[in-house]
From TrEMBL:
Identification of the protein by name: Probable 2-(5''-triphosphoribosyl)-3'-dephosphocoenzyme-A synthase
Record-stated family: Belongs to the CitG/MdcB family.
Taxonomic lineage of the native organism: Bacteria, Pseudomonadati, Pseudomonadota, Betaproteobacteria, Burkholderiales
Keywords from the named record: ATP-binding, Glycosyltransferase, Nucleotide-binding, Transferase
First-tier enzyme category under EC: transferase
GO molecular function: glycosyltransferase activity; triphosphoribosyl-dephospho-CoA synthase activity
Length: 306
């Protein structure tokens, strides 16, 4: 467990209350609009990436029969106000229960837009917490670096996120059912630990690919496969149990062992995985959400440099 003092040091966090007063309402709104725009762009980038094994893209619906790229577009459109609101809430030092209310309302907006299909529940949670952390960081005059975002999230909402992970939830979810049946962790534990799969797994993979000169598509494909190899995706367990999770891990590990997108044949290999996943109805939706979260963290850091 990282101590609060160490986290403060990483985040270089100043006196939040005093710094917050220096910003006008218009500044707060403009910043929140920009963060919301980046969040929607991150979801769009994930959707457009192809070939993603078993996942929906503009090319096809992968392992899904109840949704396509249009469903995701409607969901994204419905979520844009949520990302702005949760960023502003973070700026204004909202409690976790206030953030949760926004998250629950966003889930309802998503379900209305998609006629009951869960397109982005994981993203509402992880990208929502990142938008709130970005707002809080900016209010405190803290840079939007990945380390600072994580530190701000854990310092301000870490305890409540940990409590949320231990709660049963008012309505049973696929994630809770999977956790009870297979004793695997999922989105709740990710949140409680400050999104380690984003900061310690996906983001380093994106950066490593960028460093070797990969294209944007290639760096995102590498990050997606790295996430698939590392996380317990409750969507995969829910649909196909531990055997399905084993198939996902094997494909991801093989792809990465061959060098990922640095391998000349990566596109054909990814297409092959896509076909196998569709045959088994596998869909690593949790990894897809976390990839979008990585893209958001990357663009927030770039915003800082601009
Ligand atoms: C904390 C919550 C996210 C609730 O989580 P819970 O554990 O209760 O589980 P789910 O409701 O199942 O939602 C979790 C979603 O998170 C994604 N996910 C999966 N594994 C991981 C992981 N290891 N790390 C991070 N994220 C993960 C995953 O999202 C994707 O899967 C979607 C499809 O899922 P599902 O509906 O199961 O799929 P189908 O196969 O279509 O199901 P059926 O039709 O068969 O039923 C896909 O679209 C991706 O989005 C999981 O879905 C959070 O919901 C919560 O607490 N909400 C309340 C609001 C709140 O507190 N907000 C806090 C402030 S923001
Ligand atoms: N592209 C995608 N396909 C299926 N499920 C997802 N969950 C998040 N993104 C997804």
């Amino acid at each position: 467990m990282i101590s609060a003092t160490a986290l403060r040091k990483i985040g270089d966090i100043g006196d939040g209350a005093q710094t917050a007063r220096r910003f006008s309402l218009a500044t707060q709104r403009n910043f929140s609009c920009e963060v919301a725009r980046l969040a929607v762009r991150a979801l769009h980038a994930e959707l457009c990436l192809y070939p993603k094994p078993g996942l929906v893209s503009p090319v096809d619906s992968g392992s899904h029969t109840d949704m396509d790229a249009g469903t995701f577009m409607r969901s994204m459109f419905a979520l844009r106000h949520y990302f702005k609101k949760i960023c502003l809430a973070g700026w204004r030092d909202a409690s976790f229960s206030q953030l949760k209310k926004l998250g629950i309302a966003a889930e309802a907006a998503m379900l209305k837009a998609t006629h009951g299909v869960n397109t982005h529940r994981g993203a509402i949670f992880s990208l929502g917490m990142l938008c709130a952390a970005a707002g809080r960081a900016r209010a405190q005059g803290t840079a939007l670096t990945p380390a600072a975002l994580r530190a701000v999230m854990l310092i301000r909402w870490g305890e409540e996120l940990a409590r949320h992970a231990g709660e049963d939830g008012s309505t049973p979810s696929n994630g809770l059912r999977v956790a009870a049946r297979y004793a695997v962790s999922g989105a709740r534990e990710e949140g409680a630990l400050g999104l380690p799969s984003v900061f310690d797994v996906g983001l380093p993979a994106l950066l490593a690919a960028r460093k070797r000169g990969a294209t944007v598509t290639e760096e995102r494909i590498d990050a997606l496969y790295t996430l698939m190899a590392h996380i317990s995706d409750s969507n995969v367990y829910h649909r196909a149990g531990p055997q399905g999770a084993q198939i996902v891990r094997e494909h991801a590990e093989r792809f990465l062992a061959q060098g990922g997108t640095a391998h000349a044949n990566w596109h054909a290999d990814a297409l092959h995985s896509h076909q196998v996943f569709v045959r088994h109805r596998l869909s690593p939706g949790g990894a897809a959400d976390l990839l979008a979260a990585c893209c958001l963290v990357q663009s927030l850091a770039a915003l800082e440099k601009a």
